[in-house]
Amino acid sequence: MVDMFNVGQIVNAVGIKGELKVYPLTDYKERFDELEFVYIEGRRFDIERVRYNNELVILKLKGIDDRTTAEKYKTLYLKIDRENARKLPEGTYFIVDLIGCEVYSTDGSYIGTLTDVIQSTAQDLYEIKTKELKNILVPAVEEFVKEIDIEKKMIKIQLIEGLMDL
User: Fold this and answer.
1) Whole-prediction pTM value?
2) Do residues 44 and 5 touch, judged by C-beta distance below 8 A?
3) pLDDT digits (tens, 9 = 90+) for 145-160
4) Three-point CA angle 102, 145, 95, nearest 5°
5) What domains are there in the chain, each with its CATH number?
6) Could you give the CA distance from residue 121 to residue 36 in angstroms, rounded to a whole number?
7) 3-state secondary structure 43-69
8) What b/e readout covers 88-112, taking b as 16+ CB neighbours within 10 angstroms?
């Protein structure tokens, strides 16, 4: 299992005191209020201050004290360790844990490997690279996704008629 999670991407510097403008990669951007520190390229930074500007998070990290230094971090990801990740409700999973799972039909036939989770407002879609090297999309809803076993890196789905014919 992956032990570090991306929680945001630095998109720019803000002002002259080293603040970072961050695009949150979490469903709950206020999550940054709960964090004491983040990692950037393996280096730990304590969070001094958090504020919000529309959908973006503005962070002041200890040790980044001017605009020039802040600009060096542009495009990099903020990470947290698994220990500091939020506890998920039963039946929900971190995307990073789903990617790489082998996908089988409910009759046990091997379909392929989950390569991505496409998030949308309607529902997530699981992108699966089939054994024939085609990409198929399966809605991540109970009607189609019947079992997920993160420990075994295995997902069972109910095949949708015509899906494999694409």
Assistant:
1) 0.70
2) no
3) 999 999 999 999 998 7
4) 60
5) 4-83 (2.40.30.60), 95-159 (2.30.30.240)
6) 30
7) EEEEEEEEEEECCEEEEEECCCCCHHH
8) eeeeeebbbbbbebebbeeeeeebb
